[in-house]
Design brief:
Elements (H helix, E strand, L loop, with lengths): L1 H32 L6 H5 L17 E8 L4 H11 L5 E4 L8 H9 L3 E4 L12 H19 L5 E2 L8 H10 L2 E3 L3 E2 L8 H11 L4 E5 L6 H14 L3 E3 L1 H5 L9 E2 L1
Parallel strand pairs: 1-2, 1-7, 1-8, 2-3, 4-5, 5-9, 6-7
Helix pairs in contact: 3-8, 5-6, 7-8
């Protein structure tokens, strides 16, 4: 009888113990997957001053246009528009088709744009093994370096998917991660007016805009986007210029 009387109490205590363990586990999982990002302003504030002759985004109303994907045919026409509006940008290139467009890749660098690493085959890095992550980034970096003479120090994880492990591997490879503050979701629509509207509504000082030039609606939207941002007083810069006079730190995530 004594055991039967104690049984409900034991069950309650056991239930509470299980609840505590489950709660603690959930908290640990959340903390492990909560990635800390650094804003351009925070990074700039770590440096003393901007060297003479460089854009000072502490004073200028800066914004960074970034373009993801393969360096296919529209890229040349895009660069003509960027040159017209004096808009240095950052291109995160996939590696698998770089060899098909060597002149385009060289022109990106020669026109004063920045080139970042967007992996070789665009896998979700959080689902890939350590060896696969290293190979995806190293192979693309080598291809870019052979064509431009410069090894990329910035990378963009496909779909923006990253975690502590990917960050550690990027630090090992000497690369900082760059996400974005606004996306036009041009991969999901060919509506040029919608792409333009999404960019302009989301644009803000120190912003990083994500676009994909190979999607049909993007290039037709660029004249309106560039014109409107220019009229709003924005200074177009690369991601590295946005962070200057500080430099991107390998493994860190910028947004």
């Amino acid at each position: 009888m004594t055991f039967l009387k104690r049984r409900p109490r034991l069950l309650i205590l056991l239930t509470l113990a299980v609840a505590v363990v489950v709660t603690a586990t959930v908290v640990l999982v959340i903390r492990a997957n909560r990635m800390e990002t650094v804003s351009p302003r925070e990074q700039r504030d770590r440096a003393a001053r901007t060297p003479q002759g460089q854009v000072d985004c502490r004073r200028a109303k800066c914004i960074a246009l970034t373009f993801d994907g393969n360096p296919g045919e529209p890229t040349d026409r895009l660069m003509d528009l960027l040159k017209k509006y004096k808009a240095p940008s950052t291109f995160f290139l996939e590696g698998r088709r770089i060899h098909q467009f060597p002149d385009v890749v060289r022109r990106i660098a020669e026109d004063g744009h920045e080139i970042g690493d967007h992996t070789w085959t665009h896998p979700v890095l959080t689902d890939a093994s350590d060896a696969r992550v290293r190979e995806e980034l190293r192979r693309t970096a080598r291809a870019i370096s052979r064509l431009t003479g410069r090894t990329p120090t910035l990378m963009r994880p496909p779909q923006g998917r990253t975690d502590d492990r990917v960050s550690r591997l990027c630090e090992e490879l000497g690369m900082a991660q760059v996400l974005w503050t606004v996306t036009a979701k041009d991969y999901a629509t060919d509506d040029t007016a919608l792409i333009t509207d999404r960019v302009l509504k989301g644009a803000d000082r120190d912003g990083i805009i994500l676009l994909h030039p190979l999607h049909k609606g993007t290039l037709p939207a660029m004249p309106s986007i560039l014109k409107a941002l220019d009229e709003q007083g924005y200074t177009f810069v690369t991601v590295s210029q946005l962070l200057a006079p500080s430099r991107a730190e390998p493994g860190k995530i910028y947004k």
